[in-house]
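Structure (tokenized):
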């Protein structure tokens, strides 16, 4: 694992219009963001900075599936994710708390 930190900018690295929960519901889903951006970065880097600014906005289902899905579906634990993923959002500061809540509320399947 690379000890460097890595920045993921949602509008630059994924989509300016993040969408629904599941891939079957649309191409810019939380599930797709988790599998194509978050998991590969977590496998390679110790610290991720996820910049949520610059999009059309986020539904709660996108946030829950992208971030809570790391625990429910991928086997990560909340404490590790809270340490390794830092959320940046100057446009919608409440999103930082929403992601932390998704981590804390998720239970492994």
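Design, position by position:
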């Amino acid at each position: 694992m690379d000890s460097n930190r890595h920045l993921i900018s949602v509008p630059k690295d994924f989509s300016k219009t993040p969408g629904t929960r599941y891939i079957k519901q649309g191409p810019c889903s939380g599930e797709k963001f988790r599998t194509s951006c978050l998991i590969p970065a977590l496998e390679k880097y110790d610290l991720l900075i996820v910049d949520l600014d610059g999009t059309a906005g986020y539904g709660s289902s996108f946030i829950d599936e992208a971030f809570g899905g790391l625990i429910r579906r991928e086997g990560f634990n909340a404490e590790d994710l809270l340490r390794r993923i830092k959320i940046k959002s100057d446009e919608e500061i409440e999103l930082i708390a929403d992601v932390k809540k998704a981590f804390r509320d998720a239970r492994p399947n």
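Reviewer-requested clarification: Residues 2-105 form one domain. The mean pLDDT is 97.
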